[in-house]
């Protein structure tokens, strides 16, 4: 729609129509339209409250709500024409309502401003997103647990500094990510508590002289409570900031998983192979099979980080209360969230098409003297101070390296020469399989513990509905 042709709500004060370029520059309707369901839900609740306190009549409320649900139906069907000349989602809905029910539509904006309206829209939208993101996290955890279950006993090299360090089990390795995702799940749930507070009724910034009932609106929209300060309600976006951090933390976890899997899929490592239906090839090199999904998961992390730094930069130094800068919170928010959800949602299927190469992993455990710590701990059990044991085994590693053999392959005489207490029984602690079997601390890679953890995760994820079957706890709702 050309500039100025649309009647503006602020038309009373302005003599001139809006300049066309100004209209294009300032609009947000082209992207904030994704909030339409939440905008309409907020308006319906607001109208219901206005009737409840007598600011509008019951039949007026009925006409407004009916008009709004017709608009919602048109939007759902893709028949609604959004107009940038109406600036944003809020004005598009209000103008459409006016076309349907005439001047009565003007009563909807009683005791309300777009400043508290956008805050409630965002909180409602985010609440829904948080719920589906958390469901997706639980499903990704379920897929990891399923894979861990398959490989609970299989040994693999554990790394520090990307150098072979100590043997672990594949199950244990995979459960590390399940733990990380659990904290993300909880963090996002915690974030939801602060998102789920109603700002509506703050109006532009100061509240209103009209007798509104904010608690009533909160109940209608299923908010836990109402905000306590009208200026804070319209000025702050920390609910988005907190969410952006939680999303970034989770994205980073996904990115580290992706990086590991990319490495493990290389010819050099050869620890995993990814089903070719989940890989792509090269347009020039006929032999290529690339782990693109993992690479893209790693790459898309940038968008969450971008959102976080963007929101920090955007709100730093903004004077209280609302400033138009805040309209800029949305595009990256929607984009980063969509991409983040795509990453989470492809993970279960992808993980079900990854296979670990048991033999190759076992073989990799034979090189690198990863049982050295186990041997040192064996000496500690015989009363040798750890620092001394470390030194003794270090010398044996040097000897084995010179001879081109493993610690287990050294002659028992060589071990005894290094320390008299390294008798025949030391053999039982050598080799990756033996070493993992002797881990005894809580949270270690011993397959016995890993199995127990897997069972605990299954119960928990069944409770969340992420694994089929009956959980122990009855789920709400
Ligand atoms: N489109 C605006 C935003 O996203 C809505 C609030 C507008 N308020 C205003 N006074 N112009 O922030």
Textual characterization of the structure:
The chain is mainly alpha-helical and 477 residues long. The chain has three domains: 5-110, Fumarase/aspartase (N-terminal domain) (Fumarase C, Chain B, domain 1); 115-154 and 169-358, Fumarase C, Chain A, domain 2, CATH 1.20.200.10; 372-430, Ribonucleotide Reductase Protein R1, domain 1 (Orthogonal Bundle), CATH 1.10.40. It is built from 18 helices and six strands. It has helices at 20-26, 29-32, 36-52, 58-76, 89-101, 114-150, 170-195, 214-220, 230-235, 238-264, 292-315, 330-351, 358-366, 372-381, 386-403, 412-418, 432-438, 447-463; strands at residues 155-160, 163-169, 197-198, 225-226, 272-274, 354-356. The strands form three sheets. Strands 1-2 form a two-stranded antiparallel sheet. A two-stranded parallel sheet has the order 3-4. Strand 1 and strand 2 (163-169) form a beta hairpin. Helix 10 runs parallel beside helix 12 and helix 11 packs antiparallel against helix 12 (330-351). It starts with 19 loop residues before the first helix and ends in a 14-residue tail after the last helix. The site of arginine has 10 residues, from helix 6.
Task: Break the fold down into its secondary structure elements and pairings.
Blueprint: H1 20-26, H2 29-32, H3 36-52, H4 58-76, H5 89-101, H6 114-150, E1 155-160, E2 163-169, H7 170-195, E3 197-198, H8 214-220, E4 225-226, H9 230-235, H10 238-264, E5 272-274, H11 292-315, H12 330-351, E6 354-356, H13 358-366, H14 372-381, H15 386-403, H16 412-418, H17 432-438, H18 447-463
Parallel strand pairs: 3-4
Antiparallel strand pairs: 1-2, 5-6
Helix pairs in contact: 3-4, 3-6, 3-8, 4-5, 6-7, 6-12, 6-18, 7-10, 10-11, 10-12, 11-12, 14-15
The chain binds arginine.
